[in-house]
Amino acid sequence: MLTYTIRRLLLAIPTLLFISFIIFLIVKLSPSDPTAGLPLTIPPEVREQIRESLGVNQPVFVQYFRWLQLMVWNEPLHLIEGWTGWNVAPESTTRIISYQTRSPVMDLIMQRMPQTLWVVGISYIVGIIIALPIGIISAYRQYSWFDQLGTFISMLGFSVPTFFTGVLFIVIFAVNLGWFPSVYDTTHVVTDWDSFIVQLKQIIMPVMVLGLFNASQISRFMRASMLDNLNQDYVRTARAKGLTEKVVVLVHVLRNSLIPVVTVIALNVPAVFGGAIITEQVFKVNGIGQLLIIAIQSGDVPTVQTVSFIFAVLIVLFNLIADVLYGVLDPRIRYD
User: Fold this and answer.
1) Has residue 327 got a pLDDT over 80?
2) Is there a contact between 201 and 180 (Cβ–Cβ < 8 Å)?
3) 189 φ, ψ (degrees, to nearest 5)
């Protein structure tokens, strides 16, 4: 397993390099100007000097390798310095600068990361907690009313896009019923029980929108995996030995059924971040998704490139985690 993990990590390097170049090239070919957001009174020669200082007029390959160096070396040094307080990044080190805010892109991402992790993390956990029991019961009571209802809700939740579900939740629970706020207040700080209730109310709707989408997919995988294992010979053998139905289902069948489901859960983590882009925009959550949307709208090329590359790293990383988990959970699989 260790040899396989090292081999996959080494293979991930050229994969990420290729992905980074494609992302850089596609975003770079888009019509954007770092001086577009500046006042019209700025003379053309000053605008040209700004473009020269940002390296926009250099050849594409020169810009790419410069951005790659900043992304894989300079920015990690600044992150380590910010987290640990160690003086590892020289003061003269160049950083990736946003066209819109004129501040380091990685600092903007780290400012918004807690909000995204708070919403996405809770929604994924809620989705898993909802999906697993529904999938287990639906498979054990196949074609029952519970199975039919679970199938209907799962298909509905997976088919309807999150931006529609978000707007629907706002109309029902915020506008008509007035139970929850329609806008997420990022500046809210939890200091006591009352402020905790306020935080809980404002996070319920974005969490439920993403949680419904996640639960719909995971519950279908859980049901299919359980049905596949319920008909296996070892299940009939366990029942013939006199084991109770609870032990057969929750110990033997569930443990084997979770093997493919765990890999699906790991593979879906990057997709959850992608889904959060739209959900954050609907509920005005000041997270990474909203940062990406604003950067696209304003032509902020460095921010779009950096955030897109971080998503690509998450996809490659969680693909590796899923493969390793599959080998750990299933003793029949040997990578070495």
Assistant:
1) no
2) yes
3) -120, 130
Q: How far apart are CA 166 and CA 281, in angstroms?
A: 10
Q: Which two tokens stand for residue 121?
A: 């993390």
Tell me which amino acid residue 45 is: E
Q: What is the pLDDT of residues 233-286, one digit of tens each?
A: 888 888 888 888 888 888 888 888 888 888 788 878 877 777 677 777 788 788
Q: Smallest Cα–Cα separation from 111: which of 183, 191, 187, 202? A: 187
Closest C-alpha to 149, from 257, 223, 225 = 223
C-alpha to C-alpha distance for 139 and 273, rounded to whole angstroms: 29
Joined together, the tokens standing for residue 275 give: 């889904």
**Domain residue extents for the chain:** 2-84, 106-329
CA 32 to chain CA mean position, Å: 27
Write down the H helix ranges in the chain.
2-28, 44-54, 60-69, 75-84, 105-140, 145-159, 162-169, 193-230, 233-240, 245-247, 254-283, 288-298, 301-329
For the stretch 135-191, pLDDT in tens is 888 888 888 888 889 888 888 888 888 888 888 888 888 888 888 888 887 777 777
For residue 199, what are its two tokens?
């935080």
Q: Which CATH class is domain 106-329?
A: mainly alpha
- 157 alpha carbon, distance to own chain's centre: 18
Residue with tokens 């992304």: 71
Contact 226, 254 (CB under 8 A): yes
Q: From the CB of residue 239, how many other CB atoms can be counted at a distance below 10 Å? A: 14
Which residue reads 């969680």 in tokens?
Answer: 318
Non-local (6+) Cβ contacts of 296 within 8 A are 304
Quote the CA–CA distance of 281 and 278 in Å, as a whole number: 5
Cα 84 to Cα 87, 105, 263: the distances in Å are 9, 20, 33
Closest to 28 measured CA to CA, from 50, 60, 52, 5: 60
Query: Can you tell me the mean pLDDT for 290-303?
Result: 82
Residue with tokens 């609870």: 246
Confidence of residue 333 (pLDDT cuts 50, 70, 90): low
In the chain, what is the greatest distance between 2 CA atoms, to the nearest angstrom?
87
